[in-house]
Amino acid sequence: xxxxxxxxxxxxxxxxxxxxxxxxxxxxxxxxxxxxxxxxxxxxxxxxxxxxxxxxxxxxxxxxxxxxxxxxxxxxxxxxxxxxxxxxxxxxxxxxxxxxxxxxxxxxxxxxxxxxxxxxxxxxxxxxxxxxxxxxxxxxxxxxxxxxxxxxxxxxxxxxxxxxxxxxxxxxxxxxxxxxxxxxxxxxxxxxxxxxxxxxxxxxxxxxxxxxxxxxxxxxxxxxxxxxxxxxxxxxxxxxxxxxxxxxxxxxxxxxxxxxxxxxxxxxxxxxxxxxxxxxxxxxxxxxxxxxxxxxxxxxxxxxxxxxxxxxxxxxxxxxxxxxxxxxxxxxxxxxxxxxxxxxxxxxxxxxxxxxxxxxxxxxxxxxxxxxxxxxxxxxxxxxxxxxxxxxxxxxxxxxxxxxxxxxxxxxxxxxxxxxxxxxxxxxxxxxxxxxxxxxxxxxxxxxxxxxxxxxxxxxxxxxxxxxxxxxxxxxxxxxxxxxxxxxxxxxxxxxxxxxxxxxxxxxxxxxxxxxxxxxxxxxxxxxxxxxxxxxxxxxxxxxxxxxxxxxxxxxxxxxxxxxxxxxxxxxxxxxxxxxxxxxxxxxxxxxxxxxxxxxxxxxxxxxxxxxxxxxxxxxxxxxxxxxxxxxxxxxxxxxxxxxxxxxxxxxxxxxxxxxxxxxxxxxxxxxxxxxxxxxxxxxxxxxxxxxxxxxxxxxxxxxxxxxxxxxxxxxxxxxxxxxxxxxxxxxxxxxxxxxxxxxxxxxxxxxxxxxxxxxxxxxxxxxxxxxxxxxxxxxxxxxxxxxxxxxxxxxxxxxxxxxxxxxxxxxxxxxxxxxxxxxxxxxxxxxxxxxxxxxxxxxxxxxxxxxxxxxxxxxxxxxxxxxxxxxxxxxxxxxxxxxxxxxxxxxxxxxxxxxxxxxxx
Length: 906
What we know:
- This protein is α+β, with helices and mostly antiparallel strands.
């Protein structure tokens, strides 16, 4: 074998053949590779690679075998259509399924619509060219026919002459010769004699080249009755085709040809169709009438006959004649019990049974329906062989009806391997038998039957079942798993399966991707684990592929092949903090801090070089102890501080290094825009950086907003809405109270829903009330520390007053010094019906809200430019007073939001 391998390897190197081509051209080498797949890796020149693509070898070998088999074997099996449940009669079926199977044997009369026998014969539209046919001797010459006259010999002449209206043809040398009404053979003889008499030294030739047309009438049960011009060469059959055939009600057995008022022929189309006899299919003459009378005796024939259909019978015809027209019984027909369904005297239906032997004596009647029964598969005189056999199906039992004789004959004809498939169960088989309409089973030992130690006497319709070992026990396999494999796999077990066979039959991973990082995968061949379970218990083996490649596996062994780095854990070091790629890295002997920072992509610009932290882990008395060192990063990098396995390095950021924060100033500042801020920077400082206020700045109306506050305000609004909904629900489900107005609860629920919808429309902007100063920019109390995202908007001077809420006409008015709150409300049309006149308040331009009380003390509130006067809704429910607080809070928050938005838009 080694010499063969060396020789083929040399061939491979000299002629540059691929290993696959080399194997395909050498079946002997294919067998060697199949037994030892490592040869393929050697052919490929990669002796160090232990993963062998056995599937590739198997594919090549299969192709070789397929080519060999294609020469000798022509039979293929479509395994997709095999029903394995039919391999045993003991497979459980529900009652419905069993009933369905039983009814499969039921013989049912076809409901397919029958066609009339002979109808298609008249559907043929092929037209015969009379010139291509010899003229029949009895053809009667008509006016308009054209003769071809020819002379050969001393005189050579050709001439065409036409039969004129007098029935004559005119020949210059002979004069008028009368031929009309004569049969063609007599007219022909007359003309030849006349011509040869006139031309004694010449031979005459006479033929008809063109036929005249005649007029006939077609009537009766045809599709298109009428008067037709047809060729004089036409027959009765041609006329029927011209009239598009016979109607279903018309007779095809008694077509009448009338001439000069008398019936001269009865044409039977069946004689022509069945026997090819064209008796009475006469040539037509001018004035002929074809009459198709109504059918007199039609019967239907269906079942096991060659030509089922609707037939027309003559008066004296019998069942035998009917079967003859239908080309007799099919091979599957039963000779006894031909059923005849008869409609007697239009009053009742009778059923008669007729044997085939009586068919010649049995006369049928109009409307009879004849059904010829097929032989049922229940009447079979054979047995059937099923299951683990090469050719399942029916077998004859001949003289000897024993099971052993059947198998002996089969083995003699086909050989043992030609009868049974692989893994045949030799100790068990079944015979399923129908006995007195009930099924029973008879078991047998196949080995004993084959050796004639026991036997079973067979009966017709017996079903013999041969089983495969895998039908009584699981197909044995070996399970292979592990993180070195693409996926776990079951391999077919065969006796003598070795560890190397399993290793060379699976697909290995070449790499693994974890958290976006690619790792190579290497199978650990030194620690392959085999787990085995048996009746004696569990056992495990750790095997070395090189030393234990011949280790013999057993059915259901579990083989684990792991990644080398699963069984040999890598030592790692970790780095976090201010490096480009913080993560765990494989520790390498002698690794220093510079090496680790280098493979981590280097330090970031924020890295703090004065100090860093290293955590060491050591095992002390069985416990993992952590110790921490704080070192100078500059010094450590200078000395390339040496690391230990599993160290954790942390690099810090430069103190006070943070991301930029920005605020925005808009409106009437000298330099509006976006400003970066430092931690702790105050509002006055940024206003100063922006150049202070312009001359037209309305600092009393400045709006300062904060994102974090807007979020809190939105949450507060939602909480208030939620509480209001809960109370409304509680109130609507509570019992009626004294003095409560009917429908009040429903109104409250509707009000709550509307209030919630309105609240969703208003998004708080996070306004903080501040007081600015023209010189110091802000008052001491309002000089707040800024946050990222803060916005200050300083509007231009505002000389308007906005009246908002429950007034007849919400509007903006020009500020007039001295006008009171009441006067502005009156300017807006006054209060509407649901206004709460006692809860009016004024929102100042800087965001402060002041409660307004009508009466003697109203003069205390002076309306200022830029103010917003808010008139809330009156919330007056006898039983719903607890709702007032939440509703008022929501309305107040909405009002402040509106006032803030107005200030920003002015």
